[in-house]
Amino acid sequence: MASLQFLAPSSSPIQSNRIMVRATSSSSTSPNAVNQTMVAPELSRLEPRVEEREGGYWVLKEKYREKINPQEKIKIEKEPMKFATEGGIHDLAKIPFEELEKSKMTKDDIDVRLKWLGLFHRRKNHYGRFMMRLKLPNGVTTSEQTRYLASVIRRYGKDGCADVTTRQNWQIRGVELPHVPEIMEGLNQVGLTSLQSGMDNVRNPVGNPLAGIDPLEIVDTRPYNDQLSRFITGNFKGNLAFTNLPRKWNVCVVGSHDLFEHPHINDLAYMPATKNGRFGFNLLVGGFFSPKRCAEAIPLDAWVSEEDLIPVCKAILEAYRDLGTRGNRQKTRMMWLIDELGIEGFRSEVVKRMPEQELERSSNEELVQKQWERRELIGVHAQKQPGYSFVGLHIPVGRLQADDMDELARIADEYGSGELRLTVEQNIIIPNVENLRVEALLKEPLLRDRFSPTPPLLMKGLVACTGNQFCGQAIIETKARALKVTEEVDRLVAVTKPVRMHWTGCPNTCAQVQVADIGFMGCMTRDENGKPCEGADVFLGGRIGSDSHLGDIYKKAVPCKDLVPLVVDILIEHFGAVPREREEDGGD
Fold this sequence. Notes:
Domain Nitrite/Sulfite reductase ferredoxin-like: 121-189, 381-445
Distance between the termini: 71 Å
Number of helices: 17
Pfam family, one: NIR_SIR_ferr
InterPro entries: NIR_SIR_4Fe-4S, NiRdtase/SiRdtase_haem-b_fer, Nit/Sulf_reduc_fer-like_dom_sf, NO2/SO3_Rdtase_4Fe4S_dom, NO2/SO3_Rdtase_4Fe4S_sf, NO2/SO3_Rdtase_FeS/sirohaem_BS
Oligomer: single chain
Largest sheet: 5 strands, antiparallel
Strand order of the largest sheet: 5-6-9-8-19
CATH class of the largest domain: Alpha Beta
EC number: 1.7.7.1
CATH superfamily of the largest domain: Sulfite Reductase Hemoprotein, domain 1
Shape: globular
Number of domains: 2
Number of strands: 28
Family: Belongs to the nitrite and sulfite reductase 4Fe-4S domain family.
Structural class: alpha+beta
Helix content: 25-40%
């Protein structure tokens, strides 16, 4: 395993105004070998648009500030990371909220800049309260950390709760600004951070939730994701080289044939592959979701050894940071830059930023098996360690209260190793349970009454974003509605295998409806009387795994009250569901 190294930002000049590039594979065995001539972009387009200033902050150059979006202007007016690096959060937390609202600068502080500290003000639906997003590489957490988070949300009563996210992460809700410095210090004491978890930063690194315990794993992804998280956050103190990206950026390391990590929707995905007897990764780049466009990641035609895990991440981030556009926010994700430069043009910019300005072509020795039936994570399953099992628990739409978290921490200590694993399906795994103790674990009231290891099939794959209970961007309520619709549908039809249903409250698609078997995207529509009502665009046909595919619109603007019969019809027609027999009312 490579040791973690922090690398200084780099850039390389281009020698001519317009150059001809011949892209030729360095390996005759590469499946992605190319041999074509193309015209590189103008030199001016390849000039970095940002520059490093005093203190290590990266700032957009003056000449590139025309037609930039409002968020870029806010970053220029005041550096967000100073709340962390220079202790600004302590001063801000002391100011009464009503005073902060009187000036645009401090109003932008609480609504935008605090997102660099993982703090999201819920102005529209939870005024004066913040959601705090953490960094939890590979979704691994401890009982101690879980208890601490429970103690934070408990102080806020009915306003406090926690959610498991679709990036194997925790989000806690109800946080009040005066408590933030204390909370952040507490996070540090238990080995957690919320730094660089929002806005134009790198999101939580995702990996195999069964890493290290999976009998069929390709590689343990935990050390790699820990390296990535420490590099990106500067050992949890802030890495200023990557706090001014054009937009958010997602990364994952794949360690399973099941592709639990969803590599095709990440900006950078490390796909395990060997080359000439060395272990490493082929790279996919550019996957993302947005209201206006969704794109699957594409091959960079590059392979790196495990020792170059961090250098290539750094090079790709620098290329995106330096060259990405900062105008229309709907066109600032990394794939738009790849489209503009072409995949070879983008690759060449990555190469320039590698330590030796070299990057091997991809390997044809991929380790992920293409034909693989995705395994179940919920329930009791054998680990690679003899005599031990992991127990996957269904957390309905990912929502937990403080008492739930305390109980999970107790159970992890009593039956396992004090560890919990979060999944991208918003569920939780308890690893390292001795087989002799499984039966006792399954009798725990929390598992019988709240978080079942044997939920109904339609509940197993249910995912929902925050919805308009807390999120100001959500158009509809999602979590409670997802549960209610699914329960009603389950009473009407029976399925023979899980059907993944995802609910998202708005086109930002935080719940990733396009990868679901059936997806619901919130919208406003009209009922049969022409009155405005909450509705959903219904998606169908998303797939995950080696044959991943983004779903398509099946029916637009369906009133929410009409979703149950529509879902019943879809399940019967497309998923082999059968109507449940109903007993007639009346006496004997």
